[in-house]
């Protein structure tokens, strides 16, 4: 399946269904926290992701493992949603569905996602500065930061918001100097 087809046929309908339920029960933020927790869990445990996507493992075993791991930590609507994904053999798309839910939640809250790549972890003042710059660029109400570390940048940051990229890294500056010298 192509990425957009997968998104249109699987990820979006499930994420929209979860969002619809969350809105009807006034739980959009609570289920958003659950989704973020699930994404963190999947990132921390590649074994869990492999287990959930393994077609040989029975659905009831997958549901039991999910219940044991996250059952008490997530809202019962989230747990029921996970069971539906297991029953319909869509649990292997959990990460994509969660990311799609986060995108819907950001849109609802007029929030943008800024992907920030830096050479070292940003401190709180630097994160605040990046948020303010992104708010000024996009007129968004809020900014969610997703940070990555890339030691090859030498210094500075690269900020990506949607299709906009602000390259304030030393590597980018050196590249621009090289281009201007070659012309």
Molecular structure report:
The chain has about 180 residues and is an alpha+beta fold. The protein has helices spanning about 5-25, 30-45, 45-55, 60-70, 75-85, 95-110, 125-140, 170-180; strands at about 110-120, 140-150, 155-160, 165-170. It folds into two domains: about 5-105, Peroxidase, domain 1; about 110-180, 3-Layer(aba) Sandwich (Glutaredoxin). It is about 60% helix and about 15% strand. A four-stranded mixed sheet has the order 2-1-3-4, with helices on both faces. Strand 3 (about 155-160) and strand 4 (about 165-170) form a beta hairpin. The N and C termini lie far apart (about 45 Å). The relative contact order is 0.11. The mean pLDDT is about 85.
Number of E-state strands: 4
Q: What is the CATH third-level topology name of the largest domain?
A: Peroxidase, domain 1
N-to-C SSE string, H for helix and E for strand: HHHHHHEHEEEH
Q: Could you name the ranges where pLDDT drops below 50 across 5 or more consecutive residues?
A: none
